[in-house]
C-alpha cells in the first residue's frame, strides 16, 4: 500500500498537478493582462480599503487573514528546507516564480468566488469553487465532487501534515511526546472553531499579522548578524536556479530540473493558489469597493506575502546556516531549537538564538 500511494503521489504531484497549476496560472496571467504586475502598485490602497466594514459579511482584511491562516504553516518552514534539500538553493527562485504565477490564479478564483457567492440562512455569505462550478458552469455534480475531495484533503491530509511537523519539532526541541502535541493541537483547534466563522476571522485579524511579523523579524535579525554573506546567498540562489553554479564548478550538483520541480512543488503547496481553499474564505467578505475584482486583488497580496516574503525569510535563515546533510533534512532544520547553538561553514561562524522555537538552525556537530 505505501508503494501504491508513493506511485500516485509521483504521478499526480510530480508531474500532472505541476503542469496543470502552472498552465492555469500562465493562462490567467495572459487573459488578465498581467494583472499581478499592473496592480502591484495598488496593493497599499487595496489593503487600506480592505479594513472598511460593510454590512452582510467579513471585511476583506479579515478574509485575507483567514486565508493566510490556512496558507502559512509547515510549507513556509519545513517546506522551504525540504525544497532547498531536494532542489538546491535555486529552488527558492522557482518558488518566487510560482508566487508570481499563482497571484493571477488566486485573483481569478477569488473574484469568481465573490461573483457567485450567496447568503445563507444566518445572513452570512457563502461561496467558493463548488458554487461557481454549479452556477457558473452548470455542473453541480462537479461542485459536489470537489466539495468531497476538499473535505478529505483539508479535513484529514493537510491537518495531519501540519500536526506531524509541529509534533516532530516539539519532540526534537523539548522532548515532548508526539501524542501530547497532537492532543494540544486538537483541543486548540476545537476551541478556535467553536467561535464560528466571525470569531475565527476576528482572531485571525490579529493573530496572523503578529505571527508573520515575528517570523520576518527573526529572519531580519539573523540576516543582519550575517549581512556580509547576503550578497553571496542571493547570487547563489540565481546561479543555482539556472545551473550556472554547477557549470562553473564542474560539479554535478543539482540540475535545473531538480531546482524547478522542488521550487514549484513547495511553492504551490505553500501559497495554495489554484487548490480551491482560498476562494471559500474570499467569498465570505463584503468587499469595498463592491466589485468581485476588489477581493481578488486583496487575495493576491496573500500569495505575495506567503511565498515572496515569508518563504524568503525562511530561505535566508536556512541558507545562512550553511550546508547540512541531504539525507537528514527534516522539519527541525527550520522550526526550533531550545538552546544556543553554533555552527561552522566555509570558515565562517554563525550564532542564532530561538526564544520561542522559531529560528531554523543547522544541527549540532
List keywords for this structure.
two-stranded antiparallel ribbon; disordered C terminus; mainly alpha; 15 helices; 365 residues
Kindly provide the radius of gyration, computed on alpha-carbon positions and rounded to a whole number of angstroms. 21 Å
Percent of residues in helices? 55-70%
**Average pLDDT level:** 78
Domain count, please report it.
1
Strand content: under 5%
Strand order of the largest sheet: 1-2
Oligomer: single chain
Structural class, please? Answer: mainly alpha
What is the number of E strands?
4
Largest sheet: number of strands, sense, barrel closure = 2 strands, antiparallel
> What sort of overall outline do the alpha carbons produce when their principal axes are compared?
globular
Order of SSEs: HHHHHHEEHHHHHHHHHEE
**Helical region count?**
15
Low-confidence stretches: 324-365
Distance between the termini: 37 Å
How would you summarize the topology of this molecule?
Layout: H1 2-31, H2 35-38, H3 43-50, H4 60-71, H5 78-87, H6 90-115, E1 118-119, E2 125-126, H7 129-135, H8 140-174, H9 178-193, H10 196-225, H11 230-241, H12 244-249, H13 256-271, H14 278-282, H15 292-320, E3 341-345, E4 348-352
Antiparallel strand pairs: 1-2, 3-4
Structure commentary:
The protein is mainly alpha-helical. The protein has one domain (2-352). Helix content is 67%, strand content 4%. It contains 15 helices and four strands. Helix 5 (78-87) runs antiparallel to helix 13 and helix 8 crosses helix 9. The longest helix is centred in the middle third of the chain and has 35 residues, at 140-174. The protein is globular, with a radius of gyration of 21 Å. The two termini are 37 Å apart.
